[in-house]
Specification:
The protein has about 300 residues and is α/β, with parallel strands linked by helices. The chain has 13 helices and 9 strands. α2 packs parallel to α4, α2 packs across α13 and α10 packs parallel to α12.
Length: about 300
């Protein structure tokens, strides 16, 4: 069934687990996410970025995602990830998305408030929930105190932001970053900051840039020709700790891309005569599905649907 992020995240926040938001770009990635959710009996968020919309088309992605939700036995939301302007968010709402993220984190505080409030005022009357972001994702290692404060989410500012905008969820910056190259050394997430934010903010909190970049996937990809030296993600114990401190939604994209790429490379190398796209892409779909199922177990959402 198709639901909103609010429907999924409030129970997660109350019961101390997290719901995964998995980025899709094509039919195979959608099938991987939906099938994993059904098999794990887990609620799930199907996330679509503006770049995915540019690649596959808003109408196509919306329709196949809604079809998956209508036929699944678990609750699924359709979510815009990192929409950077009102126009993109409004188009997704009109296309049937049940949740949108408006990312004004690159703006000054007052501009971020104004943009987010505009989207909230448009979305809420239509029954659509809104996520926003405060702070910027940038892996924090040996940064100075001043550098950290410039990019990480300020707890007091987060409280004011939520109160003034009326958002349903807030993405916070505590030291994670996007992509497969998050850190040069060991990750240093600011859990104390996260604890303070939870104390001040009364909406579900979101962690972006949380892919763990599993080494077995990196090794497989490299074995079959990929160049991924230095790829490093968020350790799973850090994810568990973040959930215990209030994170209710976790975004995953990079790990799915890596699983897709590694498996395609392996399949083609081992089956040089194969040219059936269903078999080639089917192997990648199964690999992505196993990654999604593993995340659901890690996040504690398995069995919660």
């Amino acid at each position: 069934m198709l639901v909103t992020n609010r429907d999924l995240l409030l129970p997660a926040r109350q019961k101390a687990y997290a719901v995964g938001a998995f980025n899709i770009n094509n039919l195979e990635s959608l099938l991987a996410v939906a099938e994993a959710a059904v098999e794990e009996k887990s609620p799930v968020i199907v996330a679509v970025t503006p770049s995915a919309i540019k690649y596959a088309g808003l109408s196509y992605l919306a329709k196949i995602a809604k079809t998956a939700a209508e036929t699944a036995s678990v609750p699924i939301s359709l979510h815009l990830d990192h929409g950077e302007n009102f126009e993109t968010a409004s188009k997704c709402i009109e296309a049937g998305f049940t949740s949108v993220m408006i990312d004004g984190s690159f703006l000054k505080f007052e501009e971020n408030v104004a943009l987010t409030k505009r989207v909230v005022d448009f979305a809420h009357p239509k029954g659509v929930t809104v996520e926003a972001e405060l702070g910027r994702l940038a892996g924090v290692e040996e940064s100075t105190v001043e550098e950290k404060e410039a990019v990480l989410t300020d707890p007091s500012a987060a409280k004011e932001f939520v109160e003034r905008t009326g958002v349903d969820a807030l993405a916070v910056a505590i030291g994670t970053s996007h992509g497969a190259y998050k850190f040069k050394a060991e990750p240093k997430l600011d859990f104390e900051r996260l604890k303070f934010i939870k104390e001040k903010v009364d909406v579900p909190l979101v962690l972006h840039g949380a892919s763990s970049v599993p080494q077995w996937i990196i090794e497989k990809a490299v074995k079959y020709g990929a160049e991924l030296a230095g790829a490093k993600g968020i350790p799973e114990d850090n994810i568990k700790k973040a959930i215990s401190l209030g994170i209710a939604k976790i975004n995953i994209d990079t790990d799915l891309r890596l699983a897709f790429t590694a498996t395609i490379r392996e399949f083609l190398a081992n089956s040089p005569k194969e040219f059936d796209p269903r078999k080639i892409l089917g192997s990648a779909k199964e690999a992505m599905k196993e990654v999604v199922k593993g995340k659901m177990r890690l996040f504690g959402s398995s069995g919660k649907a």
